[in-house]
Amino acid sequence: MIHAARASRGDGVLFELPERYLALRAEARALADSVRDRAAEADERDDIDPHMRAALAASGLAALTVPGRFGGRDERVDSLAITVVREQLAATSAHLDSLFAMQGIGSHAIGVGGADPVRERWLGPIGRVEAIAALALTEPDVGSDLRAITTRLTRDGDELVLDGHKSFITNAGDADVYTVLARDGDGYSLVLVPTDTPGLAVEKPYQIIAPHVLGDVILDGVRVPADHLVGVAGEGFRPVLDTLATFRVSVAGAAVGMAEAALREAVRHATSREQFGTSLARLGPVPTMLATCWTEIEMARALTYRAAAAAARDPRAGLTLATMAKVGATETAGRVVDRCVQVMGRFGLVRGSAIERLYREARPMRIYEGSTEVLLDSLAKQLVRRSAEV
């Protein structure tokens, strides 16, 4: 799906996507450019910026996050398309990137396992950004070990009843619908809960270093119809895994976008500033630092595109590559942004500058949707198993 670029082009593009994805990249870049002057303000908000939401809706790009049957652009969600778009959006605004990505992350399970009336009700509006989606997995005392959750699902006639406390939920307070993971007897089930359901409340007890639409979702005797069960009762991890398999690699795309944006800032600074009678870009270790950043970004992009193309073909089969890409690209982004701050010296530390914002925004990426250490542990186990089978 990805073709090597001709060396004669000389435009710095080391890999080329098929035309369809190049067109999507151009669409995403146009959207990002149209809201660039609001990026700094939006990225400091803890609720959804209405201008960003309107721009995303007008672009039509959110339709990529839902299946074609419900108004999406493709028959099924295309991981490579999502990744290419996120690369462009994240380079300009983490807020816009999150808004786009969460429409898919919050609704994907509905698409693969929801009852037809539920899918008809929600997926079209989500693809048009008329409704905001959220996925509620983690809890105050539960992060990576989701089997330790305490939120419980019980049944009362033809109703599903939920009690529990979800924590660190993206879009909490602005979402129109939550997909909630809960214990269900000896298993786990996923349940769709509209925001206006009695017994659902949202609290915002904290904010993170790169402000985010984030909060806790409290479920106190929340009742929804039985057809709001997503997937098979007791097998809620299946649609959750489907979501991760489709969208995890897109985090790598966002990380590549952020890293490239940071490098642009550093190059701009280094080429416009003179020290000791020469351009900063030619002074001491700076050339090596810049070239190392560029090299690492292109390495991360190559793995990311390969993994995203594999996920587009078969999300479950491509999950290992997606996991590698998520780890590799987010760790690369952390190193690159830090190095670019160093290149810019005191100007890299200015509060409110683009590079300072990127520094804060890159850091959480190594934690959310699977922390580096947890994902590496999973990869190591797979490696050992494969070695034993040889």
Features:
390 residues, alpha+beta, Butyryl-Coa Dehydrogenase, subunit A, domain 1, Butyryl-CoA Dehydrogenase, subunit A, domain 2, Butyryl-CoA Dehydrogenase, subunit A, domain 3, 4-stranded mixed beta sheet, 4-stranded antiparallel beta sheet, 12 helices, globular
Structural overview:
The chain contains twelve helices and twelve strands. The chain is an alpha+beta fold and 390 residues long. It has three domains: 3-127, Butyryl-Coa Dehydrogenase, subunit A, domain 1; 133-235, Beta Barrel (Butyryl-CoA Dehydrogenase, subunit A, domain 2); 238-389, Butyryl-CoA Dehydrogenase, subunit A, domain 3. The chain has a four-stranded mixed β-sheet. Strands 4-5-9-8 form a four-stranded antiparallel β-sheet, with no helix packed on it. The longest helix is centred in the middle third of the chain and has 36 residues, at 237-272. The radius of gyration is 21 Å and the shape is globular. Mean pLDDT is 94; it is low at 4-12.
